[in-house]
Amino acid sequence: MGLHDQYGLTHVINARGPFTPLGVSRSDPRVAAATAEALGEFFVMEEVQDVANRVLAEATGAQAATVVHCTSSAITLAVAASMTGPSPERIAALPDSSGMPTRVVLPAGHAVHYGHPLVQDIRLAGATPVLAGTEDDCALDDLERELAHPDTACLLLVSSRMVRGAHVPLADAVAAAHRRGVPAVVDGAAQDFRIAELLATGADLVLVSGQKYLGSPTAGVVLGGAGPVSAVRAQEKGIGRAMKASKEAVLGVLAAFQVRQETDLGAWQHAQTEKATRFVERADALPGVRATLASDPTGLPFPRASLRMDTAADAAALAGALRAGSPAIWVMDHRQDDGELLLELVPLTDGEIDTVLDRLGKLLAG
Question: Which candidate, 292, 363, 297, 301, places its Cα nearest to that of 329?
């Protein structure tokens, strides 16, 4: 008996992408094996993190790296590190930030909601989020004006499809922060395919999720300069104690990066494109829907399937009906007000894709 049946849990087909409320992702068997082995052993955790620092730095080209509980906690700890540096006294004081720089500047459109407000991650460190520009537009002048304040701890930038408004050039924003002597942090939670690109912005810290496309246990990976990463690790003597990574998480992350390095990404990308293309060809033959390929707005190396319907109500009704069935099929519904649903097929098996298409056919015909 599987876990779903043992505990009476809903069977899910996840066409929504690496979505936390659905358990995020599936792990490669090699990652699962490394995680299981770690659970049965004892380790000196400082040694494990030292190994993670070396292995992840070599794998990504960063100067240094560490693993924390998740990307949300990585934001809090990166902000805390920007406020405290290596000072044991300041680290022990947080979230009382008296006498420290507390302003965290971010473009207004980057104040996204991941199931909770990203700005709450900032506040947990005892810092104050300061939104530059508007949700529709944030020019470099808007950032420069806020960064000029002497109480500024860091600039926080988000690389995500959920970002709103006009595109803020990340490298230009990082350079603007550095002109003011302000460290820059990039939250790239689901951007593990783009680590090299994000590091190339010059950001002091780049944060990615281990459990999204990498498929590790729950973990946040912090990459960047040796000094900033060291300051993040030092937070474990303070608020970071509640956000530490477990042994199985750190070693699972290392296994996930090894799997990624052993993967022929060109062949993988071709396979994802072929999978999405086949789905779109079959879906486009169904009544009441127009199916096309849709690229990722942040540049992730695979397409999604776009289903367009005549009205927002039609799209919302279809998404609800898919979710209400058994198995429950979850899709990306953030564009349903425009009559569009998106399906990410990366983690799905051929059998699951057949199930999705069969369900779509029955719902659209009925």
Answer: 363
**CATH number for the domain harbouring residue 139:** 3.40.640.10
The answer to whether residue 37 sits within a structural domain is yes
Residue 246 lies in a domain: yes
Residue-number span of the structural domain to which 62 is assigned: 29-262
In terms of Cβ atoms closer than 10 Å to its own Cβ (0-12, 13-18, 19+), residue 327 is middle
Cis amide linkage into residue 217, ω under 30° from 0? no
Per the structure block, which two tokens stand in for 208?
């990615």
Structure confidence at residue 79 (pLDDT): 98
Rounded Cα gap, residues 23 and 207, in angstroms: 20
DSSP SS3 for 57: helix
User: Cα separation of 33 and 35, whole Å?
Assistant: 5
Q: Which helix (DSSP H) or strand (DSSP E) does residue 350 occupy?
A: helix 350-365
In a domain, residue 292? The reply is: yes
Torsion of CA 245, 251, 256, 257, to 10 degrees: 90
Q: For position 334, which CATH number holds?
A: 3.90.1150.180
Q: Which two tokens stand for residue 355?
A: 């199930």
Confidence of residue 161 (pLDDT cuts 50, 70, 90): confident
Q: 161 lies in a domain? A: yes
Whether 289 and 343 share a structural domain: yes
Residues 239-254: tens digit of each pLDDT: 999 999 999 999 999 9
Half-sphere exposure of 303 (CA within 13 A, CB side): 18
Residue that is last in its domain, among 198, 233, 262: 262
Q: How far apart are CA 14 and CA 252, in angstroms?
A: 22
- 192 and 209 Cβ atoms separated by less than 8 Å: yes
Burial status of residue 326 (CB atoms within 10 A of its CB: 0-12, 13-18, 19 or more) = exposed
The 3-state DSSP class for residue 156 equals: strand
pLDDT > 90? residue 1: no
* Contact between 143 and 107 (Cβ < 8 Å): yes
Residue type, 337: D
